[in-house]
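User: Fold both of these, please.

Assistant: Here is the first one.
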Amino acid sequence: MIDLYFAPTPNGWKAAIMLEECGLEYRAILMRLSEGDQFTPGFLSISPNAKMPAIVDHAPGPDWGDAPVTVFESGAVLLYLADKTGQFAPSPDDLRGRKALMEWLFWQVGNQGPMGGQLSHFRNYAPDGQRDYGFKRYLGEYDRNLGVLENRLEGRDYILGDYSIADMLAFPWAFIAKPLGASLDDFPRVADWRARIKSRPAVQRAIDLHKSQQNGGRHRADNNTVLFNQSAASLRPKTDKSHT
């Protein structure tokens, strides 16, 4: 059994997609981010960055010993699960394949994901009257990353050729292009790639997980100081809460 600490966001979908694709038994623990579940002592012991997704694997296998294994950060979670199951990633002894995987994993977590997250903030959550410059800045960066992906998909159905965790990492932030105020019209390969992945049953199940709990713009920077305007003080553990 794997515990998945999850909220229905692009980053949360990444881990849920991988768990569904692998057919692993897991329990989704809904993180009430607007209420501060991410700052409880129990969760900070799993994810010191106070971000989801994170997992606790209660049966990691003989190489790991008897204690459960905790993994935080979406790229690390997917790489751990790929190595655990032997699925959706080049094997460690495939040096060229592994090198390409690492390049695109780091591209996603260092470029596409953060730029999409900032774009989402200025599109959906920034206070009125304070969003124009940030929105234009991050829309340009988001589009630049779409261009990187468009070029990579020339002659390929998927980022590495075969469907892999590189696709699972990148898909969620392309999936929500329209709500971010972006368009895939100039990126036909990305649009086709997005459609291929969206049609997968495992992906559909992951996207539907706790769908009713999506923020939908209810919690914004001007009405929720738990989600926004955090500082180092935010990482001082709060009283633990039970999860639903």
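And the second sequence with its predicted structure:
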Amino acid sequence: MKYFAAFLKMEKPELNQQYRQAHLDFLADLDEKGYIFARGPFTDGAGGLVIYQAEDETKAKQVAEQDPYLINGVRSLELHEWKKV
């Protein structure tokens, strides 16, 4: 299993609260299914970070892009493979 850091940059803060619960529910479901290593918001309001666990980058991106924040343009995605040491 590989790790992928998903930077979720805030794009439309005015929509953040509207889709927040859907985003949190989405992540909670993935957490239960074992797709998430860690997750949380940046304290400066710039967005958040999710570290996904997946077989490859294609699968990690496929999973990440289902986030309601991304679907609704609230945040943008920057995905990088991450090496846990």
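The beta strands are 2-10, 36-41, 47-54, 75-82.
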